[in-house]
Design brief:
β8 and β9 form a beta hairpin. By secondary structure, this protein is an alpha+beta fold. The protein has one helix and nine strands; from the N terminus they run αβββββββββ. The termini are far apart. It has a single domain, classed as Rieske Iron-sulfur Protein, CATH 2.102.10.10. The strands form three sheets. Strands 2-3-4-7 form a four-stranded antiparallel β-sheet, with no helix packed on it. Strands 1-9-8 form a three-stranded antiparallel β-sheet, with no helix packed on it.
Amino acid sequence: MTDETLQSRREILVALTCAACSSLLPACGTKTESPPATGQTVTIKLSDETALTTIGGSIRKSYGTNNAGQPVIVVRTGQSEFKTMSTVCSHSSGSLQAPSNNRSVCDLHGSPFSTQSANFAQPLSGPATTAVKTFTTTFDATANSITIQF
């Protein structure tokens, strides 16, 4: 065999090995699909979730098969304003943790997402570059409850 043939075989083996290894790794940087909408609604009495009685208060909770069975984060962002976001990271499907200091951080690559009203669910820095899914959340002052539309 010539040196040229050996070199060509090495290049092929290296390429095949890299291709095989890369298929085993998660696609870092690949935007993930948002969980599908279910059309269901969930109503929460604020008396049952005392963390939501103050502005800035939040809960991280699952509601059946909504949000593909993953938890959502509900935040009271104003006197009569509530917002809800998925905990499924838009970067590579990591899980957003409970909010702290106006942000929720992905446990996989550390992307922080805002929990403040003006830029709710938006990434504050990378590697994520797109917002996580949000769900319409309405407040009923008379019933002292919120309704989340999944």
